[in-house]
Amino acid sequence: MCINRFLQLIVGHRRGNCKFNHPITILILSILVLVLYFLYSFHWSQKKLFQYYILDEVSNTSSKYADFEFTINEIMRCSREAPFLVMLVTSHPSESNTRHAIRSTWGGVREVYYGKEQLVGVLTLFLLGIPASMSVQAAVETESRVHKDIVQQNFVDSYRNLTLKVLMGMRWVSRYCPRAKYVLKTDSDMFVNVDLLVTSVLQPGLPPRTKYFAGHYFEATHPHRNPSSKWYLSRQHYRLDFYPPYCSGTAYTFSSDLSAKILQASQNLPLLPLEDVYIGLCLNWLGVHPLSNSLFHIKHINYSPCRYKSLVSSHGVTPDKLLLYWKGVQGAGDLHCDSVSLWLKETFCSLWACKGSSM
Ligand SMILES: *[C@@H]1O[C@H](CO)[C@@H](O)[C@H](O)[C@H]1NC(C)=O
Ligand SMILES: *[C@@H]1O[C@H](CO)[C@@H](O)[C@H](O)[C@H]1NC(C)=O
């Protein structure tokens, strides 16, 4: 064996015949081993990095999801037959109009056809905290008796408590619906194309995935350090300068096995007020990498039946728009929506502002 000559070739230091030169060989080999060791440990620390995102003082005192009590629950909704998909919608107690619009559109979808006349079931639940007003709570209880689609726990309903709401949803799925295949978590100001989500993203024809998590993906984004920001996070709460990979909380989908695992991870990770970042931390703790899916949109997409037939989620949709868009998409039937005709119509319409276009 002539390792020496090989190494001499690499370092460009040739010395005629192949003499086994011990000191140089050993030196170079040890450098190689050291480099490999550093690469390996760097990779390891990257993987585990986000466990150490909080300062010690904070981690001792900051709260965990301590299994708040259910004040409204639906323990039987899943008992007969587990649905293929559970859609969890975070909603404020006072927005009964919004819930009504969702129920009469995408939240009212009970089954989706795929393949040749095969059906899968879908279940929609609204996640609520406790409102400040007693009369709103009374109205929520009445609404719950009528529709049986509200789940509520006894924490104050506020934007900074959204993480508690999402963990409540995880708790509900893991405890009362563990045999569902997939979960969608979304907000009440969203348009969701349930058909496309089921047929083209989740694909019931495939064997069910586990440790699967997908949505609009963010990588290496930075915490907002300006206290006036909606997404403000102080250095006391989060000391790193970037976030783990995560999917926007507007809409993400995951295999239902993750709901119990995320809850378990949350026992080890102090809560953050940013729900989607926090779920990203839990996934990092579990070693699950979220996937990017271009059908999930975090902005409002200008409405057209073709565009809305070919996206899974669009943001900032008011209840009255939601009803309009839904009607339009349902009415579009098998409207020709390939990308060339879409492009032609869009170009045409941008030039001549065609009103009432069925694009
Ligand atoms: C937090 O906990 C760690 C270990 O559990 C301990 O060393 C540290 O002193 C605690 N900090 C405070 C502020 O209590
Ligand atoms: C979140 O809920 C808890 C439990 O009800 C409450 O003590 C806390 O004040 C709430 N936090 C915010 C920011 O509303």
TrEMBL record:
It is found in: Golgi apparatus membrane. The keyword NADP does not apply. Pfam families: Galactosyl_T. It is a single-pass type II membrane protein. Its main location: Golgi. GO terms for molecular function: N-acetyl-beta-D-glucosaminide beta-(1,3)-galactosyltransferase activity. Pathway: Protein modification; protein glycosylation. Its EC number is 2.4.1.-. This is Hexosyltransferase. It comes from Eptatretus burgeri (Inshore hagfish).
